[in-house]
């Protein structure tokens, strides 16, 4: 069971309080009607599924209720950082050793 | 236990030398959501809105706990319910927010006794030491979302939705006996 | 006292006799005995039979690593466990134990014929045969293999015990309460940290319990231990015995299982049998110690052949001599001390046979002083004795050649192949290992977790080294937690560190094919099997393990992994690290299911959510059904009624007068804010802007893939406030989906969502008399067609209770849904129930609700849709806002396949012969075709207990909307049913019955 | 290759088993192959076997970053069944079950396929409707699957608790008698031995780092730890690594890789005669020939390649087992492990061509890949050889995610495994 830092509560808490919400920074097209079937399929289904640092979303569903973003190494399951929804995607190289 | 939760009467439900579980009297409960300038709402409610999650304020018989960046839960005497609704409605036009009456949604258990804090470790995965006395948190207890109010070192209130109450009480009741049976 | 019990030795209480049974025979042990120590005290070595060859076996070890002495343990009805380790189970008066995997008896087991034919049962033999004839596998071969395998028998009764779990947070968790763990605990405790110290044994102390001769800081080991434990407890250390650290999970979550009652003669009230602890520690110290390695030689599995260290433990901890004429066989100093202890306790050690040429002079002198014969540079090539070892055959080894053998008579062979550090939990952390050539073992390297490993588990032998490393690592942990620890030193006298060499199988003069030199005792894997696996191309230890099953027995390789690796790498001509170590998998020792299930058994397996009205239904003998986490009344049978009769009555009464229904479980979400209407426009397919306050509308929710996710009636309570209802099962999912879009895609919207599912109890009244019944109780609105038309909603008072009143119908009758604060639900229900008697009010359940709505063609999401159905498929294009720029699912709906002709569309079906169709039945156009048939749809809902004069059904049929009036066919096993495609509305198509 | 049979076993027994030969050589890569298959699991080795046997293509390398069969092939709960809902799935999995029937003889390697039957328990009215829909659809497709009453379920598998007052009462079950289990390692080993005997190179401990493409865009070969290997065609079936490998060829997949845990109990004498699946409760159980109860857990909620899983999931899985089979509560868990499952949005696999010419993929099996091993390998080989899908895997395209023509077993039946 992971320990996850909620950037809103500013606490590191057991995974059971959180719900995974898949890859982050996949924005829903502003005008869906204008996008092609390919692009819509890309938005709906295609995922990078990175083996290594993955930008992903979690929701502190049993806590503050907020969706937020995280960077987690999917090989070690260690979190490199978590940040609020809407914050810019942090640059990987800038990320130091995972949160404790 | 198939009795409806509405048939629970305030008072002690289970107790041992180790811990005690009581049923709290009904009260008016509101979920308040707001952003931006909170002053008008604070004026309307007669208490300040803490902005750190987990922080609590008390004004007279009204207690308010910050649950999220734009979310608070408010407990007040039942008789205050209408006044609170009216007061908030009064400022809505200029300061839109969401006030939802959840008085009927939840009940509260009171947990205390020398090992009250340990009793909660049967169902709560988070470190209770991270909830300071006088604060509170929304968290998970035995699979159900609950709000824990820490009123003292070993005394807590646990708010849960009606339909989870008997299930959660069963665990608390088991724990009350289990803890008492332990040779310390 | 039993003949092998030595007075003045051990920590058992010889003044307190304990009686238990083994295979029906009664034995006496003493307080503090395990089943194994008690049997050994009675001279019983034969305790079990092996897995494949059914060879007689005795205890080889004294702890949880025991592979052979597995027994069934019983405490009366319902309390039986197979495969219990006799070396771990403590005895109590009345304990019943039994041996396993034998027939008819342990002493004479016909299964042992396998042993005679062992040449056939080589590694992987079953992959090579049992293939002809094909049909024989299921009928003959497999049953034979299955019956031969399996050790003990399963329990057959429900477990009457209860189990518990708890979460625990601490600064430092220390696994293993031997000298290393004790020293680490003190180092952390003196700094005021929250320390937890756990040990799987009945008492703390580890090796100290087996080495009373040692003196620590001037005190005898046992005195020091007692004082130290007191001191630690005084420092607030939580010391947990009979507690096994079973697994190491992410970020220092360690699972512990505490055994609370298996050692007690009487079960105390309110005490669980076992408790699972989920410990979250800031730092972890692993001090699991090391396990002694067996030596691999022909006949090394005979009862009486045992690890030297374990013999020492049986003597010093339990006061039991495992033999009176033991012979020691070793490649390590440790076994010499065992020889000395046994000799000093009255045994006549026949000889110390060491494979090494050079041994510490001190040891030689000690042996000489005791008059023990010593044989250096010797190997062992055989043992004899049927059910108990009676002699050991040893041969000199010179320049790699094995000389002629000599028999040594004995009643026990105490062997030591050196020690293997316990790296189990460390490797659960995905920690890396390094190979150490001197010690021929793996040692811990790096771990991603906040964890240190100390003492013998990193290859340090002896009590002094253990204490020193424990103190050192304890200090490291203290400093990792930001405090400054102190240097501590321990003075140890009569310590017994030792050195030794490690072997593959011992050299022998037997022809290799003949030797039965066991590596994995329980699974009967021999050195020969391992070499065969390599010969057949198995090059990784994983392959060798899986091919031979070495290390897969219930000791999980504790006895066999390293010996297996040494032999396999020798066969491959590679260094051990290139062959690799099989990963240690949790749990550390086998762990009862009950400990994991914990409190979640029976009715508390999962929460059962009940409405406030549920208790009324229960009192009325309703039959319930689980829906999501809720239980809902399915129907209300009168005496003698089955479901069909009850539902028929409930349906008829509702259409004739009035029915009452508990709709409280429907999901409810309050949507509030200036942008509430915009949010609704974006989420739901329908347009909401024009919906006036006080009115409600059926809403349809799609996923962005265009398929129906949920539906429900939505009321606009005021300009900025919507009362949204969802399906019972969908409530949480829908709210989460809404929050996801709101927080992630449209954070600009000024609107908030609150779950009000449980704020309200919802009582639904349906039927021609519904308005008449309800009206007298309503204050604030008149229930007329003009003042409160169909699809209206209002906040008012009902029977003096604050209420949200909806005029909606899911039955086709005049309908109302009264929402009152949840705790008033039963009160409202009973009020209406009593008043309704004059109209013959009838309570109905979900089944009747399903029938009545189907007669009107209202869909149930999840029954008439299945996640691949669009609004157009169910003829609900009317619910899709065409003018809206966007809504969730709009783009998805435009994808080619969702626009395709001939999609499966929802239609009604009426059978030609008036028979009822089965839900789920498949539909074809051409009934004469051969199997596999081309199926064009299926029946989603079907009822013959409603108010229509013939059975009705809803179905998804390819291109159904274009096929009104056409006939389709439903091929059933016995016959094919013809049905006509109709509209989905079977009752009151022009909605006249909805009018007051 | 020494034939496996009782006579040879006896003969070798007499000579102390010293004359058995290796089942497959540990090959080093050549510079060029007609086909390079990435991933030496059952699916990849099987594809190589059928390419060699049925399509006459033998210049093949099967490359794996680790030991053959070391991925999900050796980490699953070995459930084999074909009673799926949609025609497409039924054809694919039933083709597989057909091949399972004779696989031991086909490979001259006893994979211990055991038709012990698979019983899917219904615990809710919705389950009953859904499973009956399966039963009817299967019947008209010629796939065996029949409905059992609770009492019949109990008779078929006595450890099941059918008490009416259970938290999740058993309302019946769907039984496929042809379904069952097999010895997972033997499947990989048998295919490896069969393929090697036909000239296929099996290259272990050699990670493929990238797929290289020609200027024209078509496949050129694979970069590996042991250098570049030229290949006319490249086929990828590397469960748990597909996204990365395919990404190097510029192909994005609709996959998320989740940890899946499984466990076994201590071995006991035969007590559990079949496979039981209980989706509502999340209990999946059978008993191995060694006597262990083999139990499947659910997937953790997050993407991970760590092959570790969480404790809460194991607690729930065991609680589910004790709920459905209360007599097992005092049994003990012996060993628990994790695998990586590649999940598609519709929980159906992708088998076929890709936008890159001569690059083929077989992935997205979620928790159900083992059962499909022979069938999937067989049609994958066909697709590689003919550069067009076999009719059976034609619907399982990557394209379906654009058109929306999903094969949504998950949505249709909420069936895992």
Keywords:
heterotetramer; B: alpha+beta; Gyrase A, domain 2; Alpha-Beta Plaits; six-stranded antiparallel sheet; five-stranded antiparallel sheet; 4 helices; D: 417 residues; alpha/beta; FAD/NAD(P)-binding domain; D-Amino Acid Oxidase, Chain A, domain 2; 2 domains; eight-stranded mixed sheet; 24% strand; SoxD_sf (chain A); SoxD (chain A); Sarcosine oxidase subunit delta (chain A)
Give an account of the 3D structure:
The complex is a heterotetramer of chains A (100), B (184), C (996) and D (417). Chain A is mostly beta strands and 100 residues long. Chain A has a single domain (3-26, 40-94), classed as Folate-binding fold (2-Layer Sandwich). Chain A has one helix at 37-44; strands at 3-6, 11-14, 19-23, 53-59, 67-73, 79-84. In chain A, the strands form two sheets. Chain A has a four-stranded antiparallel sheet with strand order 3-4-5-6, with no helix packed on it. A two-stranded antiparallel sheet of chain A has the order 1-2. In chain A, strand 4 and strand 5 (67-73) form a beta hairpin. Chain A is globular. The mean pLDDT of chain A is 93. Chain B has two domains: 10-26 and 105-181, Gyrase A, domain 2 (2-Layer Sandwich), CATH 3.30.1360.120; 28-101, Alpha-Beta Plaits, CATH 3.30.70. In chain B, strand 4 (56-59) and strand 5 form a beta hairpin. The longest helix of chain B is centred in the C-terminal third of the chain and has 20 residues, at 162-181. The mean pLDDT of chain B is 95. Chain C folds into six domains: 13-125, Ubiquitin-like (UB roll); 165-290 and 421-485, FAD/NAD(P)-binding domain; 294-417 and 501-510, 3-Layer(bba) Sandwich (FAD/NAD(P)-binding domain), CATH 3.50.50.60; 517-582, Arc Repressor Mutant, subunit A (Orthogonal Bundle), CATH 1.10.10.1100; 667-761 and 771-821, Probable tRNA modification gtpase trme, domain 1 (Gyrase A, domain 2); 901-994, Elongation Factor Tu (Ef-tu), domain 3 (Beta Barrel), CATH 2.40.30.110. By secondary structure, chain C is of the alpha+beta class. The radius of gyration of chain C is 38 Å and the shape is elongated. In chain C, strands 8, 9, 12, 13, 14, 15 and 29 form a seven-stranded mixed sheet that branches. In chain C, strands 43-44-45-46-42-36-47 form a seven-stranded mixed sheet. A six-stranded antiparallel sheet of chain C has the order 49-50-51-48-53-52. Chain C contains 25 helices and 53 strands. In chain D, helix 2 (42-55) crosses helix 10 (373-386) and helix 3 crosses helix 10. Chain D contains twelve helices and 18 strands. Chain D starts with 5 loop residues before the first helix and ends with a helix. In chain D, the strands form three sheets. In chain D, strands 1, 2, 8, 9, 10, 11, 17 and 18 form an eight-stranded mixed sheet that branches. The model of chain D has no long low-confidence stretch (mean pLDDT 94). In chain D, strand 1, helix 2 (42-55) and strand 2 form a beta-alpha-beta unit. Chain D folds into two domains: 28-82 and 85-108 and 184-254 and 346-413, FAD/NAD(P)-binding domain, CATH 3.50.50; 118-177 and 257-343, D-Amino Acid Oxidase, Chain A, domain 2, CATH 3.30.9. By secondary structure, chain D is an alpha/beta fold. The interface between A and C is medium-sized, with 29 and 26 residues. Strand 33 of chain C pairs antiparallel with strand 16 (332-343) of chain D, so a sheet runs across the interface. Chain B: InterPro entries: SoxG, SoxG_het, TrmE/GcvT-like. Chain B: It comes from Pseudodonghicola flavimaris.
């Amino acid at each position: 069971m992971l320990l996850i830092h909620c950037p809103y509560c500013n606490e590191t808490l057991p995974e059971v309080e959180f719900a995974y919400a898949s890859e982050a920074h996949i924005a829903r097209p502003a005008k869906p009607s204008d996008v092609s079937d390919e692009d819509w399929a890309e938005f709906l289904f295609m995922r990078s599924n990175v083996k290594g640092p993955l930008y992903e979303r979690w929701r502190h569903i049993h806590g503050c209720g907020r969706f937020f973003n995280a960077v987690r190494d999917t090989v070690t399951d260690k979190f490199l950082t978590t940040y609020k929804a809407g914050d810019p995607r942090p640059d990987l190289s800038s990320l130091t050793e995972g949160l404790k | 236990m198939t009795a409806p939760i509405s048939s629970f009467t305030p008072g002690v439900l289970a107790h041992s030398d180790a811990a005690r579980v009581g049923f709290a009297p009904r009260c008016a409960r509101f979920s308040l959501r707001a952003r931006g300038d909170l002053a008008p709402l604070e004026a309307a409610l007669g208490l300040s809105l803490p902005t750190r999650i987990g922080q609590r304020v008390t004004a007279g018989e009204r207690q308010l706990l910050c649950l999220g960046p734009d979310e608070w839960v408010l407990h007040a005497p039942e008789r205050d319910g209408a006044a609170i609704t009216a007061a908030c409605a009064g400022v809505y036009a200029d300061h839109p927010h969401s006030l939802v009456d959840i008085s009927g949604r939840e009940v509260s258990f009171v947990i205390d006794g020398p090992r009250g804090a340990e009793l909660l470790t049967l169902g709560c995965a988070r470190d209770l030491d991270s909830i300071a006395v006088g604060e509170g948190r929304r968290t998970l207890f035995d699979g159900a979302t609950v709000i824990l109010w820490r009123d003292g070192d070993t005394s807590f209130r646990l708010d849960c939705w009606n339909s989870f109450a008997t299930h959660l009480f069963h665990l608390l009741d088991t724990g009350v006996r289990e803890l008492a049976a332990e040779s310390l | 006292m039993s003949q092998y019990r030595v007075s003045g030795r051990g920590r058992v209480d010889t003044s307190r006799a304990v009686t238990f049974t083994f295979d029906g025979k009664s034995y006496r042990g003493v307080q503090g005995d395990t089943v194994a120590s008690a049997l050994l005290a009675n001279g019983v070595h034969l305790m079990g039979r092996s897995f494949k060859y059914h060879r007689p076996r005795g205890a080889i070890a004294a702890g949880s690593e025991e592979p052979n002495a597995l027994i069934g343990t019983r405490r009366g009805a319902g309390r039986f466990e197979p495969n219990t380790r006799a070396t771990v189970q403590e005895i109590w008066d009345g304990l019943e134990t039994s041996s396993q995997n034998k027939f008819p008896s342990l002493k004479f087991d016909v299964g042992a014929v396998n042993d005679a034919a062992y040449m056939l049962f080589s590694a992987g033999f079953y992959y090579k045969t049992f293939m002809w004839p094909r049909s024989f596998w299921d009928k003959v071969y497999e049953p034979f293999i299955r019956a031969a395998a399996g050790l003990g028998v399963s329990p057959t009764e429900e477990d009457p015990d209860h189990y518990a779990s708890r979460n625990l947070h601490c600064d430092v968790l220390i696994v293993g309460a031997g000298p290393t763990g004790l020293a680490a605990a003190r180092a952390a405790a003196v700094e005021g940290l929250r320390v937890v110290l756990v040990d799987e044994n009945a008492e703390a102390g580890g090796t100290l319990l087996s080495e009373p001769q040692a003196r620590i800081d001037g005190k005898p080991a046992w005195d020091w231990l007692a004082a130290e434990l007191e001191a630690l407890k005084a420092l607030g250390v939580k010391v947990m015995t009979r507690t096994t650290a079973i697994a190491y999970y992410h970020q220092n979550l360690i699972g512990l299982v505490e055994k609370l009652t298996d050692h007690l003669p009487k079960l105390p009230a309110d005490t669980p049998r076992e408790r699972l602890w989920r410990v979250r520690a800031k730092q972890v110290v692993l001090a699991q110690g090391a396990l002694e390695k067996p030596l691999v030689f022909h006949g090394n599995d005979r009862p009486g052949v045992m690890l030297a260290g374990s013999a020492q433990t049986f003597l010093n901890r339990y006061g039991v001599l495992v033999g009176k004429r033991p012979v020691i066989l070793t490649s390590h100093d440790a076994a010499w001390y065992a020889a000395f202890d046994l000799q000093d306790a009255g045994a006549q050690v026949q000889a110390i046979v060491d494979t090494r040429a050079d041994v510490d002079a001190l040891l030689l002198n000690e042996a000489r002083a005791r008059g023990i014969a010593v044989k250096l540079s010797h190997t062992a090539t055989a043992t004899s004795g049927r059910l108990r070892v009676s002699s050991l055959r040893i041969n000199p080894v010179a320049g790699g050649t094995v000389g002629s053998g000599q028999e040594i008579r004995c009643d026990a062979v105490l062997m030591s192949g050196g020690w293997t550090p316990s790296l189990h939990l460390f490797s659960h952390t995905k920690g890396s290992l390094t190979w150490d050539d001197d010690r021929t073992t793996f040692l811990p390297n790096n771990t991603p977790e906040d964890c240190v490993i100390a003492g013998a588990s990193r290859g340090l032998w002896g009590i002094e080294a253990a204490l020193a490393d424990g103190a050192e690592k304890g200090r490291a942990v203290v400093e990792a937690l930001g405090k400054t620890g102190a240097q501590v030193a321990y003075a140890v006298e009569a310590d017994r560190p030792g050195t030794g060499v490690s072997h593959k199988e011992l050299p022998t003069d037997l022809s290799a094919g003949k030797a039965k030199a066991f590596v994995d005792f329980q699974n009967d894997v021999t050195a020969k099997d391992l070499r065969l696996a390599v010969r057949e191309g198995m090059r990784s230890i994983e392959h060798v393990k899986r091919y031979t099953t070495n290390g897969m027995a219930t000791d999980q390789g504790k006895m066999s992994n390293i010996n297996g690796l040494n032999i396999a790498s020798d066969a491959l001509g590679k260094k051990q690290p290139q062959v690799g170590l099989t990963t240690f998998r949790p749990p550390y020792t086998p762990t009862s299911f009950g400990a994991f299930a914990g409190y979640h058994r029976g009715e508390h397996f999962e929460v059962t959510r009940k409405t406030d009205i549920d208790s009324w239904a229960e009192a009325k003998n309703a039959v319930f059904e689980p829906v999501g986490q809720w239980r809902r009344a399915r129907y209300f049978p009168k005496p003698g009624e089955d479901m069909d009769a009850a539902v028929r009555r409930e349906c008829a009464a509702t259409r004739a007068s009035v029915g009452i229904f508990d709709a409280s479980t429907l999901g409810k979400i309050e949507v509030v804010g200036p942008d509430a209407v915009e949010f609704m426009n974006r989420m739901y397919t329908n347009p909401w802007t024009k919906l006036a306050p006080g009115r409600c509308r059926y809403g349809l929710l799609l996923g962005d893939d265009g398929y129906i996710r949920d539906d429900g009636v939505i009321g606009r309570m005021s300009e900025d406030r919507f009362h949204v209802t969802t399906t019972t099962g969908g409530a949480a999912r829908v709210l989460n989906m809404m929050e996801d879009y709101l927080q992630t895609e449209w954070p600009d919207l000024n609107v908030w969502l609150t779950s009000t599912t449980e704020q309200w109890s919802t009582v639904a009244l349906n039927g021609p008399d519904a308005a008449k019944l309800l009206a007298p109780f309503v204050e604030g609105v008149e229930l007329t067609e003009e003042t409160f038309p169909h699809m209206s909603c209002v906040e008012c008072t009902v029977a003096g209770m604050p209420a949200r009143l909806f005029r909606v119908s899911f039955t086709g009758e005049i309908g109302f849904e009264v929402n009152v604060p949840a705790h008033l639900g039963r009160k409202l229900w009973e009020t209406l129930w009593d008043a309704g008697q004059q109209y013959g009010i009838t309570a109905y359940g979900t089944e009747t609700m399903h029938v009545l709505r189907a007669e009107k063609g209202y869909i149930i999401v999840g029954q008439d849709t299945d996640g691949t159905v669009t609004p157009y498929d169910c003829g609900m294009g009317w619910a899709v806002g065409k003018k809206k720029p966007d809504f969730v699912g709009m783009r998805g709906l435009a994808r080619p396949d969702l626009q395709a002709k001939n999609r499966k569309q929802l239609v009604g079906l009426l059978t030609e012969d008036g028979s009822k169709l089965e839900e789920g039945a498949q539909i074809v156009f051409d009934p004469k075709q051969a199997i596999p048939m081309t199926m064009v749809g299926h029946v989603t809902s079907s009822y013959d207990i409603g108010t229509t004069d013939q059975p009705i059904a809803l179905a998804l049929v390819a291109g159904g909307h274009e096929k009104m009036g056409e006939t389709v066919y439903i091929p059933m096993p016995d016959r094919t049913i013809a049905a006509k495609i109709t509209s989905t509305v079977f009752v009151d198509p022009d909605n006249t019955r909805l009018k007051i | 290759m020494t034939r496996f049979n009782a006579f040879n076993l006896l003969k070798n027994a007499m000579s102390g088993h010293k004359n058995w030969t290796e089942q497959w050589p540990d090959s080093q890569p050549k510079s060029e192959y007609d086909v390079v298959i990435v991933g030496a699991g059952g699916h990849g080795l099987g594809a190589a076997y059928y390419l060699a046997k049925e399509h006459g293509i033998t210049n093949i390398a099967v490359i794996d970053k680790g030991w053959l069969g070391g991925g999900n092939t050796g980490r699953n709960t070995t459930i084999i069944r074909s009673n799926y809902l949609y025609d497409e799935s039924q054809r694919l999995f039933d083709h597989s079950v057909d091949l399972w029937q004779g696989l031991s003889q086909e490979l001259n390697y006893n994979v211990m396929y055991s038709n012990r039957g698979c019983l899917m328990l219904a615990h809710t009215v919705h389950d009953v409707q859904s499973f009956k829909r399966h039963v009817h659809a299967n019947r008209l497709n010629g796939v065996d699957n029949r409905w059992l009453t609770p009492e019949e379920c109990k008779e078929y598998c006595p450890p099941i608790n059918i008490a009416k007052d259970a938290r999740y009462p058993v309302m019946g079950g769907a039984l496929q008698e042809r379904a069952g289990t097999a010895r997972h390692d033997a499947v990989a080993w048998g295919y490896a031995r069969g393929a090697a005997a036909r000239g296929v190179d099996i290259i272990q401990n050699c990670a493929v780092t990238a797929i290289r493409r020609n200027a024209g865009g078509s496949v050129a070969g694979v970069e590996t730890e042991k250098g570049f290997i030229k290949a006319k065609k490249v086929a990828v079936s590397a469960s748990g690594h597909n996204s990365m490998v395919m990404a190097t060829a510029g192909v994005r997949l609709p996959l998320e890789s989740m940890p899946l845990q499984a466990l076994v109990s201590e071995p006991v004498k035969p007590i559990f005669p079949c496979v039981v699946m209980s989706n509502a409760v999340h209990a999946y159980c059978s008993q191995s020939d060694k006597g262990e109860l083999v139990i499947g857990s659910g997937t953790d909620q997050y993407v991970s390649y760590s092959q570790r899983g969480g404790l809460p999931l194991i607690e729930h899985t065991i609680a589910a087992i004790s709920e459905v089979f209360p007599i097992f509560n005092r049994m003990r868990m012996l060993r628990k492990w994790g695998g990586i499952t590649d999940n598609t949005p519709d929980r159906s696999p992708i088998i076929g061509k890709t936008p890159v010419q001569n690059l083929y993929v077989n992935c997205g099996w979620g928790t159900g890949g083992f059962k499909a091993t022979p069938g999937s390998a067989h049609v994958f080989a066909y697709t590689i050889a003919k550069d067009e899908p076999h009719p059976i895997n034609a619907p399982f395209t990557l394209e379906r995610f654009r058109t929306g023509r999903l094969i949504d077993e998950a949505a249709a039946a909420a069936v895992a495994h």
